[in-house]
Amino acid sequence: MKLLNEEYIKQAIPVREKNSYKGNYGKLLFVGGNEQMGGAIIMSASAAVYSGAGLVTVASAPVNVHALHTRIPEAMFIDMYDLDTLASMIKKMDGVVIGPGLGRDDRAIDVMNTVLKALTEDQFIIIDGDAISIYVNELLDHPDAQLIFTPHLGEWKTLSNMGPDKENLQDNIQKQKELNAIVILKKGQSEIYFEDEVWQNIPGNPSMATGGMGDTLAGMISGFIGQFETYKKGILSAVFLHSKIANTLAETYYVTLPTAIIDHIPKTMKGYTNPN
Ligand SMILES: NC(=O)C1=CN([C@@H]2O[C@H](COP(=O)(O)OP(=O)(O)OC[C@H]3O[C@@H](n4cnc5c(N)ncnc54)[C@H](O)[C@@H]3O)[C@@H](O)[C@H]2O)[C@@H](O)CC1
Ligand SMILES: Nc1ncnc2c1ncn2[C@@H]1O[C@H](COP(=O)(O)OP(=O)(O)O)[C@@H](O)[C@H]1O
Ligand SMILES: [Mg+2]
């Protein structure tokens, strides 16, 4: 297992080309946030905006539109239960994050089916939170896109049948291959399973054990993938910086709020920008 530490991330973040524009930095769709959990998809989309994503659209329950626009006016909005609009929106995207606050009811299942069917092979999809349960319980087919799962240990049990006391490196590698996906297994020191190698994150601390922390990570990962040259670089940099920011904040704060992490992303990225 390779260790994900300061050395990897040093100068990993690309400098922006002088004449680049928003279209160069990722068009992302966030799908989730039912009537009870709008905050989850707002945090996720906010993390992507603050990570530098070029264009962010949120598909959510209509009741969430004003909260979203108050928090991040940079994001666009569609009703996620309008399945025709949802399907046509997917076609314009580089990547999709689905799951934060999605719920698991019949409407959520329809949303999930619509999204997975509309994807094409040049896109990526991050399946997080409730969307992990739906993917497993509804026996959904692997989409025609790069698939990325971001389970915590409870969600990994749903995906792999291995509980927190049973999961281990060899069986996790085997399961990741069966899933034909990149797996970011979230825990105290999260593990990242790629097709050819496994990484373990080093920073992180228990001040991060707060609702919304994983929603925020999913948004960061998507935002980074939209700008970095490879999936690997984007994912590893996002996982590292998410917990690195939390470590810095935990020097002075008892608990690290996901929204505080989000606020610190742009300045922290600047500090790691490659000057060449
Ligand atoms: N403000 C919001 O709207 C929030 C919405 N959230 C959403 O709530 C939905 C359900 O997610 P949850 O993760 O709460 O619930 P789940 O019920 O899916 O997962 C929690 C279960 O996993 C078990 N578990 C085992 N190891 C665990 C570990 N290391 N970390 C976490 N759980 C572990 C727990 O005991 C529990 O049974 C998701 O869609 C999520 O995005 C949460 O992110 C919290 C904040
Ligand atoms: N004790 C801890 N040490 C390090 N990281 C933690 C700790 N507790 C939680 N985290 C991190 O916080 C995030 C929690 O994700 P998740 O449970 O999906 O949150 P949510 O669904 O509430 O947004 C993960 O990135 C996990 O690694
Ligand atoms: Mg989660």
UniProtKB/TrEMBL annotation:
EC nos: 4.2.1.136
Record key words, sorted: ATP-binding, Lyase, NAD, NADP, Nucleotide-binding
Listed InterPro entries: Carbohydrate_kinase_pred_CS, CARKD, Ribokinase-like
Binding site for AMP: G214
Ranges in coiled-coil conformation: none
Reaction catalysed by this enzyme: (6S)-NADHX + ADP = AMP + phosphate + NADH + H(+); (6S)-NADPHX + ADP = AMP + phosphate + NADPH + H(+)
CDD domains (alphabetical): YXKO-related
YjeF C-terminal domain: residues covered: 5-272
Cofactor(s) named in the record: Mg(2+)
Subunit structure: Homotetramer.
Protein family according to the UniProt entry: Belongs to the NnrD/CARKD family.
Protein name: ADP-dependent (S)-NAD(P)H-hydrate dehydratase
